[in-house]
Amino acid sequence: MRFGILGPTEVRLTGGRPVPVGGPRLRALLVLLLLTPGRVVTTARLIDGLYGADPPAGAGNALQAQISRLRHLLDAADAGGGTAGAVGDDPDGGTGSGTDDDVDGTADGSGGGMVTRHPAGYRLAVPPEAVDAHRFERLARQGRAALVSGEHERAGVLLGEALGLWRGPALADVLDAPFAAAAAARLEEARIAVAEDHAEARLALGRRREPTADLRTLVTDLRELVTAHPLRERPRGQLMRALYACGRQAEALAVYEDVRTRLADELGADPSPELSAIHLSVLRAALPVPGPDVPPAGDRGPSGDLPSAGDRSPPSGDGVTARAGVPAQLTPLVGRADELARIRGLLTGARLVTLTGPGGTGKTRLAVEAAAHGHDDVCFVELAPLTDGAAVPHAVLGALGLHQPGMLPTPGGAVPDPVARMVAALAERRTLLVLDNCEHVVEAAAALAAGLLGGCPGLRVLATSREPLGITGETLCPVPPLALPPPETPAAEALGFPAVRLFAERAAAVRPGYAVESEADAVLRVCRALDGLPLAIELAAARLRSLTAAEVAARLDDRFRLLSRGSRTAQPRHRTLRAAVEWSWDLLGEDERTMAGRLTVFAGGATLEAVERVTGLPDAIDLLAGLVDKSLVEVVGDRYRMLDTIRAFCAERLAEAGEEEALRRAHGEYFLGLAESADPHLRDAGQLEWLRRLDREYEDLRAAMHRAVLPPGAPGFPGSPETSGPAGSSRSLGSRGSFDPVFALRLLSALTPYWWLRGLRGEAAAPARRLLGRIGLHPPAGAEEEYALCVFLAASAGGYDPGLKPHVEAARSILAGLDGMPRQPFALVVQAVVLGLPDEDHHLRSIRRMDRLGPDPWTRALINFGLGYHWWSNGRPVEAERGFEAALENSRSIGDRWGTVTALTSLAELAIWRRDDGRAAGLVGEAMSLAEELGATTDLADLLCRRAELDVRAGDLDGARAGYERAAGFARRAGDPAALAGARLGLGEVARIRGDLTEARACYKAALAGCDLEGHLAEEVRGRLRIALGRLAEMEGDAREALDRHLSVLSGTAWRRNPPLAALAAEGLAGVALLEGDGERAAFLLGLGVALCGASAPDGPNDPDIARVGAGARSLVGDARFEAAHRRGGGLTVGRALAALDRIRAGGGLPSTSGR
């Protein structure tokens, strides 16, 4: 079957029989697939090509329906029917729905026949030779090569055959499709270039013949070409030479006069030096026979960049002009002062400087700016249009204004060596030669630079390339993206960073009066998501003509479709973000492309070891080096990483190759191995080293965890729109694959110590909850312990939803049934945080069971923690302190900083409870130093609250407020709602003590909203909040509300094993007694608080509430009665003190003073 797009769309069977194609939408779909036959065209590109930037809501279904029609049409015709046109008839383009079965034609979704389905899109399974445009491209390339090598007859045949494939304007019957105009323009440009080459071959043949009908026909053909393209100078020169060869000198001169007038009138320009030289030779009758005129331009076929024929060269002369070809800039350079200074500095000492970097970083712009302000002569040469390295010397000759021998041959027909001619012209000059965009002709550019530098001592070369030239004497100057503000930078300061300034300036150009301050957060998201790449930022800013910055940011998951409308005058590779990256991709070898695609599985870059293990490529070192050289990968320390935009593009290619599932599996296994290797070291002196290693790999550990937990394509899946921060539109990663609960539970378990030590409980809770949602109540066989840990992690971030209760009970039973330590010892820590202390008998049984496990210091530390909290809950502070001291010694003996922090914090809390503020301050300070080393955000939030509490007691309310605010910040970072609620409670206490009762109530309300969950920690904060609200009511004079608030703390039984909370309740009730005028009862209850705390000081050192209530009670009853009542309460044992509170709770109010 043969396909034609060089004219109206045409499909013919092998015997020439035509196949009707159907309606315009179906023809457009066929042509879009034919532009890249045999290759997968992504679904996004198909929709974009058929419907434009704003497709209708049903575009996906409509595309499926069209694919189904096209498959049936082609398969029926290929089978010999040839009458399947009715199947494809769809004059309106079709908006019906289709299903995967409709589209695939097979149950497995792989597709069959000529149109096959792929995970990323669709492929038309025909060879390029079956499509006339691709045959045209091959013939054009072969014809040009023959022309350059002097095989004029062969060139004439090949180029004539190429032109014979055209049946009319390219894509003639689908030009209304959004994709068609650009593709048709590229094909038409290629046709003109081939027509000019064909004319050159025919002219060259005229040297061996008398002017014949062939030459006269050529004159006619060239007149048609000139009429159609009156400003193209190459066919004008060919027409002048053909007319001269026919003896028609006057007509040749008239052709020149016509173009001179047109150029002056329409462009304000003069003819090129080459055309002027031909004119002069005609005037002098000195033009020899026609010779080859092959410009340094090429063709890349229907899907590639094409040369801009007729490009102007600088005025000719014996050497270069002062600023030959340096393009003037229409916009100011933003944020590149340092880079520009560095380039100019390098050029003072180096003769060859190469600006390297990925596409879109602004290498050309920097080269232009560096060249525009020097003192030497400058020649700027744009190499991007070239497709053949052999054309590089000719391009430089033209830019230098030196006559190309092909346009004006020497009398003997000899062609001087172009490098020798340039050396002769430049040997005595101080010149800066700028070679722009060398990467696709890098070998030729390198050879030319070496030859010129060796022969011209006054010459310096400034090159731009995505790949180094790789010659001796080259100095590389990498061009980074524009600087971005660090994540925590205030918005006002962030707006001054170069990436944001560029966005603001370009946005103001398309939306006059635009104020970036009004959308600062959205603009920052856009700039960060686009890696600070200037091209991408400019394309995004251009979208503000019709979108807000927030809308742009929200659509960057499909950045290549969004950023597809660049300047019409820009080089094709800079008009869209996709084209900029595709230009680099096309320069890679197959193995390099494979490596680039596989690297996208890494979310945060990778070490060489990880790359070798995960990608499985034997030559990983060399392939990485190639990608680094070509600016698709950058090296940061010992890690290789891609910019997000490049990663998104390469991920699409990985999806097209069908490798994403295997790569995700290899990636997950590698990082599971790393986490399990790190696990034991996180409980010994190697903590910091291994934490830092896991920090470096955390983006990938998190990606592996999320891929293991989330259903593919779900919100939050790495690469989905919600998480496209590292991956952009790489959401194809994870589109397939099966759920492995055992693997997911193992990885969750292995990461638990890291999360806990770094204070990232929120990071642990989110995947744990999602994983439980997929597993349900029945753990997979062999992973019961890991399931139990998963449950407690889900409940650990400050509390859990009541719906989690069945899971919690199941997990409690699993751990209770173990004879020894669980495989992940941190499971016991997490369980204790979630559930608090178990009942006394169960707690002691657990401790005895653990005591049998041997002398391991980490296990012994857990045992001693358990004993400490057991004795504390039973009101025996001395024994509790011994337990915590022993745990501290165990942790220090093995270098476990986290265990040391936990022991110090427990001792500090005990000291605060016992009102030993001096000891508590020292312990808190030591614990904070270690917690800061660990970066343990949850622990830091807790310790800051403890220190702020001490500041309140010391009367430093400003210091206390600052401490609680810092604690709130750490709690937010940790994702711990209970810790955040505790910090807000502290801020409310500071406001209340200062007398700002409105602010205090607002803080309490916010705190209460943040701990409306199940669990030990949430209940602890709620209890303290009730007491705070009771004190607030007391200060507002509402005794009834105050009493109810304090009594609510004594509901249930948990308070009986929480002496600190019971002491706070007693002290709160003392305030109620004072409000009711009962000074003795207030003193008794204050004494009760002392008994529950085990403190010796009767009034408590500097506690503002105790001091306030105590002073009020003394004023009512006098010192003697106050002291007696206080001793009566303070002299009780902990058990009798709890019993006294229980009687108050049972009575529903304070007893009368008659019972004292």
Concise synopsis of the structure shown:
This protein is mainly alpha-helical and 1156 residues long.
Offer a few descriptive terms:
single chain; 1156 residues; mainly alpha; Arc Repressor Mutant, subunit A; Rossmann fold; six-stranded parallel β-sheet; three-stranded antiparallel β-sheet; 59% helix; 5% strand; elongated
Describe what this molecule looks like in 3D.
It contains 52 helices and 14 strands. The radius of gyration is 40 Å and the shape is elongated. With 1156 residues, it is mostly helical. The chain starts with a strand and ends in a 9-residue tail after the last helix. α25 (590-599) crosses α28 (644-657). Among the domains are: 1-208, Arc Repressor Mutant, subunit A; 323-332 and 345-478, 3-Layer(aba) Sandwich (Rossmann fold), CATH 3.40.50.300; 496-579; 580-657, Arc Repressor Mutant, subunit A (Orthogonal Bundle), CATH 1.10.10.10; 739-832, no CATH class; 846-931, Tetratricopeptide repeat domain (Serine Threonine Protein Phosphatase 5, Tetratricopeptide repeat, Alpha Horseshoe); 1053-1156, no CATH class. The longest helix has 27 residues, at 1104-1130. One of its GO terms (molecular function) is ATP hydrolysis activity.
